[in-house]
């Protein structure tokens, strides 16, 4: 029986190869490997030989899981879900960086424009700093942003900015 950690996407090709050739395999939880490795030698160092030795010790003790047979649809759903989670995390990270930048360089912006929708994005694209707004009169800025596809930007908001 072949045993390995299902980390990243690397294990998927190995699992497909083993399945195609009728070779049984088991999956060992990477967190358990890490904890067991630290118990063995009290060191946090990591290398492939050490991991292989730890996995080989864990398998006879039953510290593994059997892979679940997945249909093509199951596999696609799993990948799609993982991709969606990763995109949401990246989106949140980017939004946090934008909000930090706004808080540092244009703190008035958040009190006038709520969220980071089309209006906010357009204004920040063409006037990322407060002094950039001074180039335009409120009417000119509204007209300019309308040519860029921003609708419903009120004169009152622009004046407040």
Describe the structure.
By secondary structure, this protein is mostly helical. The protein folds into three domains: 2-69, no CATH class; 71-105; 107-161. 63% of the residues lie in helices and 4% in strands. The chain contains nine helices and two strands; from the N terminus they run βαβαααααααα. It has helices at residues 10-20, 30-41, 48-58, 72-105, 108-112, 118-126, 130-133, 138-147, 155-160; strands at 2-4, 25-27. Strands 1-2 form a two-stranded parallel sheet. Helix 1 (10-20) links the parallel strand 1 (2-4) and strand 2 (25-27). Helix 2 (30-41) crosses helix 3 (48-58). The radius of gyration is 27 Å and the shape is elongated. The mean pLDDT is 88.
Q: Note the run of SSEs as H and E.
A: EHEHHHHHHHH
Q: N- to C-terminal separation?
A: 67 Å
Tally of alpha and pi helices: 9
- Strand pairing plus helix content: what structural class? mainly alpha
Low-confidence stretches: none
State the domain count. 3
The coarse silhouette is: elongated
In short:
The protein has helices at 10-20, 30-41, 48-58, 72-105, 108-112, 118-126, 130-133, 138-147, 155-160; strands spanning 2-4, 25-27. The chain is mostly helical.
């Amino acid at each position: 029986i072949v045993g390995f950690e299902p980390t990243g996407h690397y294990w998927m090709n190995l699992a497909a190869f083993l399945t195609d050739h009728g070779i049984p395999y088991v999956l060992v939880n990477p967190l358990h490997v890490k904890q067991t490795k630290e118990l063995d030698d009290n060191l946090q160092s990591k290398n492939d030989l050490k991991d292989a030795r730890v996995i080989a010790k864990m398998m006879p003790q039953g510290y593994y899981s059997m892979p679940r047979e997945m249909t093509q649809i199951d596999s696609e759903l799993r990948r799609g879900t993982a991709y969606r989670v990763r995109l949401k995390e990246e989106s949140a990270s980017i939004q946090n960086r934008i909000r930090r930048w706004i808080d540092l360089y244009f703190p008035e912006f958040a009190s006038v424009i709520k969220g980071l929708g089309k209006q906010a994005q357009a204004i920040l694209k063409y006037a990322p700093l407060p002094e950039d707004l001074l180039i335009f009169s409120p009417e000119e800025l509204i007209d300019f942003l309308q040519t860029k596809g921003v609708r419903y930007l009120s004169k009152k908001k622009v004046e407040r900015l």
